[in-house]
Amino acid sequence: MDVLLKDWSNWNPMAMEYRNEGSTDYVDSFGQNVVEKERAPMGKKKAVDKNANTEYPYLVLKKKVMHINKCALINFFGRKHVRNIDIPPNSDYFVVYFNDLGSLESAHSTLETFPQLLQVQRSHCGGQKKTRDEKMSMQRAANRVPEPAKLPAMIPTHRGPVDTQTRTIHVSCNGNKHPEFLAVPIVDSACYKSGSLMAIRDAKKRFLNVKFEFNLERHGAYVLEKEYTEETSSKPVIQQMRCGRHLFKDTDVDAGHSSVDDADEMIIMSGYKRCVACKDYTSTVCKICDMPFCDALCWSIVSEQHDQKCGTGQSVAIDDENLKKLLPKAGLPPRRSKVKITAFEQSNVVYVRPADILSEVAYHRVLTEVWMHGKKAPKLDQLPVCGQIVIYKFEAQIVRALVLNVDNPKDICVVCIDFGSVEYTAPNNLHQCSATVADLPRYAAPVKLRGVPRRALTPHLREAMYAVQGSLVFELRYHKREYDYDSHMQTAVLIDLEKNRGLNSFFKKVMTPVEPGLQGRGFNEDFLPHVAAPPGKNIDMIVTDNSFLKYGIIHCTPAGLAVEITKMQRTFQDYGEKIVKAETYAAPKGELCIAKYMGKWCRGVSLELVGDGYPSILFVDYGNIAPIHVTDIRAYPEQLTYPILTTEYDLIGLPEELTDAQVKRLEKQLQVGARVTCDEIVKNQENNYSLRMENLQKLLK
What we know:
The chain is α+β, with helices and mostly antiparallel strands. It is built from 16 helices and 30 strands.
């Protein structure tokens, strides 16, 4: 008879049942019995061998999510249950050994609760023979449901012959290459010869590589003015976006000067006087001589003269030397200083000025001096020269400008040096500028945005760059070793202090196209704006395609916009080569796409699918139609909203049927890329365009 226990405090009736493996029957996730034979009772305790893990139950698991390590597994199953974990290098599988079958049961319960994290590949209770493990593994493998084969979204069609019999739309047969148009620099090296004004005013040759980026604005592709109504003003305010900078103007432009004079008289009558230093209105005056001054800065400039003339009846006069003391030095703002954007030159170049209080006051005092001097400045008596600083007046605005190009006497290129915007203007808007005003500091400095590529401006990027000008304050970050000696600019990063985000990354995100999903519908040609030459006479055009001359059709673009087509192609090329991942795409009929033609990615419209793997693609920027294989076609991203600049024209006066000899003479006269002058452009009520060229009649005869 067993001896009765005197101390029953440590007795647990469930412990024997819990650890009795013969009374339990555990089944793994595949329905196989993992406990078929009771393990032999353990003898005397031996030293724990780390290599003897096969005696303990274990699970072979595969992780379904990333960032699962050994520490995470121990916390997931519990430290009191896990004995050891084996993780093979560079593998998604690992083996977890448990202390006993109770810990194994707890692990199964945990895995059932969180099935999205781990997947059970094998479950073993320990102590089984190797042959038995192999049999169980084979049985579980037989019970598994095979995963479906992963096939590509579209199997590329074999490049067979092009089906020309069933096509209903004619394709271009001549196989002309797409023309390329290069932007001509505004300033050439001849303007920087020794002793010239350009070499003096631009010693670093900053404007040698500058190109005009706002041809679309000049040709009416965008809305340049927006009207706003403010509560503090009875008249609406117009915001104008002009060649890289935005400005505000009054709706009553004619009465602008008279309203300013009336306001000055009202301010003077109210008791305010103009500061002798900065000419701003102030109520602070000397009690002895009644000399007006604004603040401590203005007082420091005139204090020496005031001490000599106060009480003598003599007035204080500010000469050029005193004015130079008033203004701090110009140049690139220091690192981590606050700046504001005055204009943008291209997608990766902006002009900034210091935004601290002293620089703000100095900047606006320069603008005031230019305004006061420009109101009475006479017009130029002769054509300006490159490098000359003039007063530029337009729409009630008076600014300083540096002349860059005078090749066309009726269309002179200037840069507004206090903002950075490059514009073309008529010579009657330019006035003489005194040497004192011309030598005033120029606080607007160009910086190159780090990591932002140079691309043609999309409408979205253009609106974003106009929106960040004005009142937004940025922190300027750069290092001197990142100075770009080719473009003579400092590479920098701008940080928006209000939202604490980088302006560089924001611009790059706006301008980078994203590959669209193939499950939705694409975009039609109406998704893009269209810019055509206005109806008129004696208009210069550039021929982009002449493959349909036998039908009396030619494709042209305005001469001033031809270079914009080549600028767009750089973005299309990057999208087709580096961004898009799909290998094939059969564009539905009538939808936009990006297609490769003669090794270059261009945008087009799918016109016809005949089942041979070669849809007929109309390249909208040129006008030719070609069958393109589906492996050379990509879906069109919604970020690329460049306007279409090429138009289809009917040639007026041609016979209904042309002979082959006549077609060849027309193709020789109207070569692809040639600049032609049209006698007249006609637009009918259905928005169809026609061209009239009188010399073609003589050519056909």
